[in-house]
Amino acid sequence: MKKGLVMEGGAMRGLFTAGVIDVLMENNIEFDGAVGVSAGAAFGCNFKSRQVGRVIRYNTKYSKDKRFCSMWSFIHTGDMYGNDFCYRELPFELDLFDVEAYKENPLEFYVVATDVETGKPVYQSCPVADNDCMQWIRASASMPLVSQVVEVGGYKLLDGGISDSIPLKFFEEKGYDRNIVILTQPDGYVKGKNKLIGLMKIALRKYPAVVETMKKRHIIYNDTTDYVKQKEQKGEVLVIRPETDLGIKRTEKESEELRRVYEKGREVATKMLSKIREYLGI
Question: What pTM, to 2 d.p., does this model score?
Fold first, then answer.
């Protein structure tokens, strides 16, 4: 049996996931592998480095820093979430990411990004937390319209959620047969068409394939959540999701709101601990 953890994105809805993984770490619940998309990658990597509380700590401390996330950053760097600050200064100088603990943890960690030239997902293993790893995580979390295309590993990349928001099938194909999926939308959520597709066509006119994928994103997403639901009903996957809509803005800066969503994740995970242990056979 290979135990896998699959983490959806959702910008600051990802604080729900941060709350869940902190409870998992506090209760010594381990997996053989984990895969994160967008915020699920940016926050989920702390599961491999075993850093309980780091995500909520740095988000509440730096959320209003213009270098972290702001229109100032977007105008001056081309990224709303500043590349140098978020993926170098913060993890390697201000709130240290434990690169040694990350490397020593045998858990396989993957991130998902979208190849803008093909519109297809790219799945990247990140065994060590070096600069390339941070750039893959950055790519996975680079939202269209407010982020530059990220070049790493010979690819040109944007947000993994464009092409595969919930990479359960990818993990099943990798041999993970006992998977827990953390979603950031409640049961029954249905994604609608992208209302900004006109702007996407202009901003990403060099990359028509990714625009086509974004046109179909709601269909891909809803098909995936249907698949997850079917597996859940058969007892073949365990899903951890918010009980209601989290009601948080994608780029929320108020620390009270960030902590509220984080605590929702902790609350749901704590309620489900016995189910989690039973499902994983621990």
Answer: 0.97
Query: Which residue in the block uniquely carries the two structure tokens 């994928």?
Result: 213
150-152/155-159 β-pairing: antiparallel
220: tokens are 């891909």
Read off the pLDDT of each residue in 210-221 and give the average, rounded to a whole number: 97
pLDDT value for 272: 98
Q: Name the pLDDT band for 261 (thresholds 50, 70, 90).
A: very high
Summarize pLDDT for 19-63 with one digit per residue, the tens. 999 999 999 999 999 999 999 999 999 999 999 999 999 999 999
Say which residue the tokens 């995970």 belong to: 269
> What is the predicted pLDDT for the residue at 169?
98
* 179-199 pLDDT, tens digit each: 999 999 999 999 999 999 999
202 Cβ contact list (under 8 Å, min separation 6): none
Measured CA distances, 205 to 72, 176, 201, 209, 228 (Å):
25, 38, 5, 9, 33
